[in-house]
Design the sequence.
């Protein structure tokens, strides 16, 4: 019997034919991506395009089963495609590139796909593909894993929650004074060693103090802020020792960081009223450092003597490197930079009575490594593949009548969220009406060949097609500049080209007038400009409806603007803080957590209810 | 067999192994990783689920995996097994896949037996620390389970019918240690379900933050042989009426399929078996949809790659957990419904 016997039994002949003519985009060929590629091929999807920016690393091999030791440093996308040739039965097209690069991957390219599978490891790219799927109205299958935890979420643009409908966990931040003056946990010392000390000594060109006063210092103590600023200036002195290759002065670095600076801190008595005082290193400790390079186990916690000894030898090593490299960036896989940060952090921890950590553990914190295993990725990829059948409505016996019938899924037992569900599978939710990505505006793609048409002509066409009134405004939202509104009509006669609109520009059309009788306005319309070479297409407007929405009163608007401004300010503050999470690896967006909580609550609710029911004389009451 | 491999679990992991297994050691620790290396596991049948299990546990760095299989590769296999290519049709399945499996991880000891399960006796099975049987018929499953019980070896069974699949677990008796954050209400010892009992709780204060307290909970899991589960399976008293109504049809259909052989059962006898199973389980018969039943019959014994990925992933992870002595094991019957993605754990 032929190869497709099994799948035909499951989906039927018609749906099988549809699968063979379906064109999918797979974004990511890493942990989930390798698994997805295998499943998608065995499901006989006609065509699969695979995009990944990364190359293969040794630590991938415990789960990314298509890659071998010999493939290390090779691109993931092309290597994966070579590896699946044995069992491949689909047209495969690999790309090594960044999915957010609009030159390599323009929107019309995304538009060729029937379905997009996200198998990404970072928030920015997830957000980007989500937005693209909203412009194109292409279904997106979002997924993620972290250790034993994983989730999948189908996104049907306009019909179900999008990736940004729920807030996502933002990088963890710490106030400056916790890091610089009053650490109380290992992570505070690691952040100090990595983001402050290492950067000042190795990663920056010698430069004057550039700290801004708007920072979240986490304190109002003027004396302390002054001290922090002064300390930074003094570090430039230490940087000179490094740059000038003065090996004999390495003890001066230790003296400054771990004796003098600590003593200065001790003088600020306010700090130690409620805290345990730090104990600086002693001069004797510095004099007795053993300079023989000992073999040390990276998985155990070293003694303070070993920390000091390794700090010195690794600093010598980095000094030699800086001669040729000029600037050295921290990289968790660069053993020298890792051990410098680890020993510096541990010496500081020791001073502040904080437990020391092994290099292995510090690597995880400093490098923001998220655990990853083959099994969770296999399960999540399997679920994502299965749900695609219903997203494409290929199971005739389980027709998808509404997108809200579709299920998302997440690991429940392994994530300690349930004892009797291995996977939880709630129905999809409708979009969050406050979501700026999918609900505040209508989105679509405008394809155009002739960029010589004027803004006025374009606006006329948009008005006609989508029913906008006379009074509108038009914004180039990719660059936040006003193109047209009621008292700025200077550009109406200029061509799109003249006003610097180009392929990839995004314009926002807003109804400034509304309908007086109903008090309704057209929902703002955001269009992605896709410039095509096809001169049979002069201008194609997307076939979408722009709904009427309730007009926002001037007061509400003011309040919203205020809020937006406030948020901007907050963001700036966050930028000024020390941020440690770099999103290097796979992570689970926070939004899922809310769903998990909901699920648990509803299960508890169910339990409670059943208890009440049963107390009625042991009889179970029907509802 | 790869040369110079230390199967002795007390041997420390090399720096290279630690680098290779980095992302999982960070999850389950060095000790669990070392424990896994001393384990000798038997996998029966290398179909779609068997292939997924093999991939997962070989990648994870288990000590020794032995595969028992005697199938000849068919064209159909190509549509659901990623270790096979066109040129393998007609070959013995183990011959075709041996080197490909070793490539997943050269550090794992592999051995292969081209033989049928019915020809194997206790002297064969007793060599293993754990047995996984995939795609076995009911008679094979019961015989195997009788043997693993006699030899005191943990057993996992798994199989699929198209979009529907199951895992059965018989670890006989297993004490598991879990660690979790202490909530407002401290955990107390005692029975938590029919097959599980908390026997001790230790507290551990986080070394990074003394306000964070963890509970180390020891849970005793008791299991039943496959035959007993089939005989006694019921949900009465375990679920409320509301919950019973929501149980996926896949549960009674799968259990009924164990009672009627694939070859000789007509649609009618299968439907009768399903109805009887519903009565036994305490499930309302009206919840059984004819469409589900039809599809189940149509998809009987059909292998499907994404379903195998889910089942093979869940089973392999549980094997890794018990070998590494981390996390509470599955207990004892898991049903996956590939239409709704529901995957529930039933204590039957
Ligand atoms: Zn949204």
Sequence:
């Amino acid at each position: 019997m032929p190869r497709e016997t099994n799948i035909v039994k499951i989906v039927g002949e018609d749906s099988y034919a549809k699968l063979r003519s379906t064109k999918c985009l797979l974004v990511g060929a890493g942990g989930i991506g390798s698994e997805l590629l295998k499943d998608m091929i065995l499901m006989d999807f006609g065509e699969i395009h695979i995009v990944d920016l990364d190359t293969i690393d040794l630590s991938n091999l415990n789960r990314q089963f298509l890659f071998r030791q010999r493939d290390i440093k090779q691109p993931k996308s092309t290597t994966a495609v070579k590896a699946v040739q044995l069992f491949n039965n689909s047209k495969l097209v690999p790309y090594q590139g960044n999915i957010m690069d609009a030159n390599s991957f323009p929107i019309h390219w995304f538009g060729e796909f029937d379905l997009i599978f996200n198998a990404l490891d970072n928030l920015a790219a997830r957000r980007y593909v989500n937005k693209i799927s909203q412009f194109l109205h292409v279904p997106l299958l979002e997924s993620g894993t972290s250790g034993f935890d994983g989730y999948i979420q189908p996104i049907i643009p306009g019909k179900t929650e999008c990736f940004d409908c729920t807030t996502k966990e933002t990088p963890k931040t710490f106030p400056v004074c916790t890091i610089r003056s009053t650490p109380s946990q290992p992570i505070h010392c690691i952040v100090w060693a990595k983001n402050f000390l290492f950067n000042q000594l190795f990663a920056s060109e010698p430069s004057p103090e550039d700290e801004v006063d708007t920072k979240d210092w986490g304190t109002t103590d003027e004396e302390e802020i002054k001290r922090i600023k002064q300390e930074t200036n003094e570090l430039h002195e230490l940087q000179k020792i490094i740059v000038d290759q003065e090996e004999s002065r390495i003890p001066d670095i230790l003296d400054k960081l771990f004796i003098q600076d600590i003593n200065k801190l001790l003088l600020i008595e306010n700090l130690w009223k409620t805290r345990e005082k730090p104990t600086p290193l002693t001069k004797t400790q510095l004099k007795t450092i053993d300079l023989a390079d000992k073999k040390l186990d990276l998985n155990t916690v070293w003694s303070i003597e070993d920390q000091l000894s390794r700090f010195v030898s690794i600093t010598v090593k980095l000094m030699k490197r800086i001669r040729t490299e000029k600037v050295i960036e921290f990289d968790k896989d660069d053993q020298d930079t890792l051990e410098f940060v680890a020993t510096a952090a541990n010496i500081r921890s020791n001073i502040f009575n904080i437990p020391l950590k092994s290099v292995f553990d510090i690597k995880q914190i400093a490098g923001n490594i998220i655990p990853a295993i083959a099994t969770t990725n296999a399960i999540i990829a399997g679920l994502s593949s299965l749900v695609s059948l219903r997203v494409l409505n290929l199971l005739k016996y389980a027709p998808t009548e509404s997108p809200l019938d579709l299920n998302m899924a997440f690991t429940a037992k392994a994530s300690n969220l349930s004892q009797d569900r291995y996977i939880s599978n709630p129905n999809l939710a409708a979009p969050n009406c406050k979501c700026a990505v999918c609900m505040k505006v209508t989105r679509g793609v405008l394809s155009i060949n002739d960029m010589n048409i004027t803004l006025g002509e374009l606006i006329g066409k948009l008005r006609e097609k989508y029913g906008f009134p006379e009074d509108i405004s038009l914004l180039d939202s990719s660059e936040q500049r006003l193109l047209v509104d009621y008292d700025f009509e200077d550009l109406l006669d200029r061509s799109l080209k003249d006003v610097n609109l180009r392929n990839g520009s995004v314009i926002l059309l807003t109804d400034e007038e509304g309908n007086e009788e109903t008090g309704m306005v057209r929902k703002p319309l955001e269009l992605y400009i896709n410039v095509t070479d096809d001169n049979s297409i002069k201008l194609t407007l997307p076939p979408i409806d722009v709904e009427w929405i309730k007009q926002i009163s001037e007061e509400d608007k003011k309040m919203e603007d205020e809020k937006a401004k406030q948020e901007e300010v907050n963001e700036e503050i966050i930028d000024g803080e020390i941020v440690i999470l770099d999103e290097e690896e796979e992570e689970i967006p926070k939004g899922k957590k809310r769903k998990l909580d909901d699920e648990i609550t509803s299960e508890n609710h169910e339990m409670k209810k059943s208890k009440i029911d049963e107390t009625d004389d042991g009889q179970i009451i029907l509802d | 067999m790869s040369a110079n491999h230390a199967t002795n679990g007390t041997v420390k992991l090399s720096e290279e192994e630690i680098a290779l297994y980095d992302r999982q050691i960070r999850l389950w620790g060095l000790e669990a990783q070392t424990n896994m290396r001393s384990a000798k596991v038997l996998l029966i049948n290398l179909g779609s689920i068997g292939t997924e299990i093999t991939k997962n546990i070989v990648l994870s760095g288990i000590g020794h995996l032995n595969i028992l299989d005697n199938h000849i590769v068919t064209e159909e296999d190509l549509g659901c097994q990623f270790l096979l290519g066109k040129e393998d049709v007609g070959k013995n399945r183990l011959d075709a896949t041996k080197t490909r499996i070793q490539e997943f991880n050269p550090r794992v000891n592999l051995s292969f037996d081209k033989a049928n399960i019915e020809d194997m006796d206790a002297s064969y099975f007793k060599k293993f620390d754990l047995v996984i049987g995939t795609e076995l018929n009911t008679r094979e499953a019961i015989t195997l389970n009788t043997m693993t019980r006699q030899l005191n070896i943990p057993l996992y069974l798994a199989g699929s019918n198209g979009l529907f699949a199951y895992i059965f677990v018989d670890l006989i008796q297993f004490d598991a240690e879990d660690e979790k954050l202490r909530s407002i209400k401290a955990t107390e010892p005692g029975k938590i379900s029919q097959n599980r009992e908390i026997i001790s709780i230790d507290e551990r204060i986080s070394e990074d933050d003394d306000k964070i307290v963890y509970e180390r909970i020891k849970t005793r899991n008791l299991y039943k042989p496959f035959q007993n589960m089939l005989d006694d399976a019921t949900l009465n008293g375990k679920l409320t009426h509301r919950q019973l109504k929501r149980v996926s049809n896949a549960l009674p259909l799968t259990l009924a399929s164990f009672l009627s052989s694939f070859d000789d059962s007509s649609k009618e006898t299968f439907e009768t078996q399903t109805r009887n199973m519903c009565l036994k389980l305490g499930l309302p018969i009206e919840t059984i949809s004819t469409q589900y039943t039809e599809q189940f019959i149509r998809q009987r014994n059909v292998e499907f790659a994404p379903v195998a990925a889910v089942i093979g992933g869940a089973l392999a992870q549980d094997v890794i957990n018990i070998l590494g002595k981390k996390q509470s094991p599955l207990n004892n019957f898991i049903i996956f419904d590939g239409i709704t993605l529901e995957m529930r754990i039933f204590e039957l």
Remarks:
- Chain A touches chain B through 79 residues (CB under 8 Å).
- Confidence is low (pLDDT under 50) at residues 208-213, 568-623 of chain A.
- The two ends of chain A are 50 Å apart (CA to CA).
